[in-house]
Design a protein that fits this description.
6 strands; two-stranded antiparallel ribbon; about 425 residues; lipid metabolism; membrane; Phosphatidate cytidylyltransferase
Length: about 425
């Protein structure tokens, strides 16, 4: 066992020493900000740059929300592509793989293949009526999975044919790097869009909770941080972690109350084939209808209330906010470990004071998976609207068979 530990230790050291130094990212801070903050210390200069750019990004995010769900989908796709580019670029730099035959093209080809598969699944699931009216799309949807597999298989064969002697290990490094990157970025962004179709509130509350936790933890850590939280991120402190938790839960509870009042945020996003537009109009479900709740006896003495009126979704927001503040940061810790492993400070220098896009969305991907699992486990029930869309795709004789079966079933139960 001792010999094995020594060999593994030597192997680990050898691998670390083989990793070349990656050129540090350039400072992309606008000159006007540099001049305005030139008199401040580096610590406060970074604080102001981060704060100004954070407000700018939040403002842009609210503008996109106003423009509608389709623009939000384009935003998710854009972020996915940029995150993929940042991670793949690190692989190119670390392993000096710029000169590998076909590999740069294959990385982007695999991204297109995986996106074609996932977005095709979304089209088939949510735009069935639209597809039914266009014969050219019916073929693509009917054989969508076969076409997706054929496209991927083409890229796989090209990769095998491009293998070069003395570079086999490097090429397989990059092949694995590409596929793990696809798993992290494309599949998670697909889940984000799935959450959005359930209602914009399932998209906004989780994402805003992660943003709130990130900002609150940074502020509490900046002003009150004394106790280191984890070695992977030396700047993270327990004070920031705890302050971020309570701030996020309160924010999620209040923000949910505001959003739950509007159909625009609570109704599932559906495509209207007659107007060729996404619509968010419905009769809000019980989750978004005000109810009266009894206050626990311990809190009655403190608050002086016996009952309280609130939306049921606000209770779910506590679960979402708790995950965003307690488990969500581990996505950031994972990213910190990744950056330390490859001797880089940030994924890129896209956003001054923040690093790359991936530096800001490392926790969001973990959050997206949790929300999707949470909805399917505790929220989502049978959807008559989606079932009806699927029935309308069937041939007339198949629809008649379903009708007869359903009729006999209802007669047998005494409903008809």
């Amino acid at each position: 066992e001792v010999d094995l530990d020594e060999r593994l230790g030597e192997l680990d050291l050898r691998n670390d020493s083989d990793i070349p130094d990656v050129p540090p990212p350039t400072d992309s801070t606008p000159e006007i900000l540099k001049r305005a903050l030139s008199g401040l210390s580096a610590r406060w200069k970074n604080w102001w740059i981060r704060g100004i750019l954070t407000l700018a990004m939040i403002s842009a995010f609210f503008l996109i929300i106003y423009l509608g769900s389709f623009m939000l989908m384009l935003l998710v796709l854009s972020i996915q592509v940029k995150c993929y580019h940042e991670i793949i670029t690190i692989g190119y730099r670390v392993y000096h793989s710029y000169d590998l035959p076909w590999f740069r093209s294959l990385s982007w080809y695999f991204l297109l293949c995986v996106n074609y598969f996932f977005y095709g699944e979304t089209v088939a699931d949510y735009f069935a009526t639209f597809v039914q009216r266009r014969e050219q799309l019916q073929f693509l949807i009917r054989y969508h999975r076969f076409i997706s597999f054929a496209l991927y298989l083409t890229g796989f064969c090209i990769f095998v044919l491009s293998l070069v002697k003395k570079h086999y290990r490097l090429q397989f490094y990059m092949f694995a790097w590409t596929h793990v990157t696809l798993l992290i970025t494309v599949t998670q962004s697909h889940l984000v869009i799935q959450n959005l179709f359930e209602g914009m509130i399932w998209f906004l509350v989780p994402i805003s909770s992660v943003i709130c936790n990130d900002i609150a933890a940074y502020i509490f850590g900046f002003f009150f941080g004394r106790t280191p939280l984890i070695k992977l991120s030396p700047k993270k402190t327990w004070e920031g972690f705890i302050g971020g938790f309570f701030s996020t839960v309160v924010f999620g509870f209040i923000f949910s109350y505001f959003l739950a009042q509007y159909q625009y945020f609570v109704c599932p996003v559906e495509y209207n084939s007659e107007t060729n537009r996404f619509v968010t109009e419905c009769e809000p479900s019980e989750l978004f209808q005000m109810k009266k709740y009894l206050v626990p006896p311990l809190l009655q003495a403190v608050l002086g209330w016996e009952t309280v009126n609130m939306y049921p979704f606000q209770m779910h927001s506590i679960a979402l906010s708790t995950f965003a503040s307690l488990i969500g940061p581990f996505g950031g810790f994972f990213a910190s470990g990744f950056k330390r492993a490859f001797k880089i400070k940030d994924f890129a220098d896209t956003i001054p004071g923040h690093g790359g896009i991936m530096d800001r969305f490392d926790c969001q991907y973990l959050m997206a998976t949790f929300v999707h699992v949470y909805i399917t486990s505790f929220i989502r029930g049978p959807n008559p609207s989606k079932l009806l869309k699927q029935l309308l795709i069937l041939q007339p004789e198949q629809q008649l068979s379903v009708y007869k079966t359903l009729k006999s079933h209802l007669i047998g139960k005494g409903i008809l």
